[in-house]
Amino acid sequence: MVLLMIRLSSVAGEGGGGDGGAGDGEGGEGEANSGYLGKRLVKASLALGHETYVLNREEIGVDIEKVQMLLGFKEQGAHLVPGSFNDHQSLVKAVKLVDVVICAISGVHIRSHQILLQLKLVDAIKEAGNVKRFLPSEFGTDPARMGHAMEPGRVTFDDKMVVRRAIEEAGIPFTYVSANCFAGYFLGGLCQPGRILPSKDSVVLFSDGNTKAIYVDEDDIAMYTIKSIDDPRTLNKTLYIRPPQNILSQREIVETWEKLIGKELHKSSISEEQFLASLKGQNYAEQVGLTHYYHVCFEGCLTNFKIGNKGVEASELYPEKFNILPSIITCAAIYKMIVPSLLMSCFSFIPKLIIKGMINLRKA
Ligand SMILES: NC(=O)c1ccc[n+]([C@@H]2O[C@H](COP(=O)([O-])OP(=O)(O)OC[C@H]3O[C@@H](n4cnc5c(N)ncnc54)[C@H](OP(=O)(O)O)[C@@H]3O)[C@@H](O)[C@H]2O)c1
User: Taxonomically, which superkingdom (predicted)?
Assistant: First the structure.
């Protein structure tokens, strides 16, 4: 799902849009989409009681899994809104239904990168004139801090900045979400590029493995995002998601994993120079991803600055913890085949909280 739209019931003078089907009702909280993050945004929006609209792109055609997911959203109370990025008026009509628009269009080269398509959405929001907040597809490193980024990975930040400029030139109220590293992408493979499952034997550390980065559970990213949509404190600001307990070095993550499996991994390390040399010969999409790893894991680009007056920190604004688990445990979500055995083998010594978290994850 590329677009999640929400109608804010708290907005004075605007009511809910009824409980009918696609496109019914007037006004709404937000518009989001399916997709890796998008589906979590829909879930969070519904969980927080928002009247939620999801773009149903005609291009999906007979992609049965997407259609079934959209129908699943509808069953849970979301409205499906027909529309297409190739049909300006359909986008205008869609955003007129809502107060908040959240875009989660793809922006990871190894999957798909369509960030600039959002310029069409900006045009539609501008023409519609009713949207109180737009959250573009960001959810990573703050692109405004990445003017120095390396080629070819800088394309991600450059494109996101193009979209920001269009939003601001159009005078559209916004919140930019800097979500740092998705836990599923990074923690599962113990921060090693190209891996999303952990080894029980060995790990390659970035240099000494002590550079701090920020790893956030994707469901928490979705919850913080939805929390922010009608908060005056986040209006025209960047929302940085950096809860203190989520700031971890690669070494700390590996140590946590070692404690969980009750075994020390064999550790080697890759220097900055070796890492940069390894980029050569990789395809374009891989190079884009690897340069992002470089900035995060060698340079420390997520933690080497203080949040200034253009930003706010999510866990300070919303101190409630959405997932009670330490970050490392969120990676267990993608270890589903490993977790049951872990659960048995670790039951006697890991804290009850962690056990509870694992049980929650198994249910998810
Ligand atoms: N910080 C991190 O670690 C991290 C990791 C991953 C992603 N991100 C960021 O999170 C955001 C969302 O990424 P994601 O991985 O969740 O995206 P995704 O699952 O790859 O794709 C999201 C949606 O984009 C839509 N889409 C793709 N091609 C399209 C097209 N040609 N026209 C219209 N819609 C199209 C699809 O919507 P339909 O369902 O309608 O087809 C798809 O479901 C991006 O900004 C990305 O950079 C950050």
Answer: Eukaryota
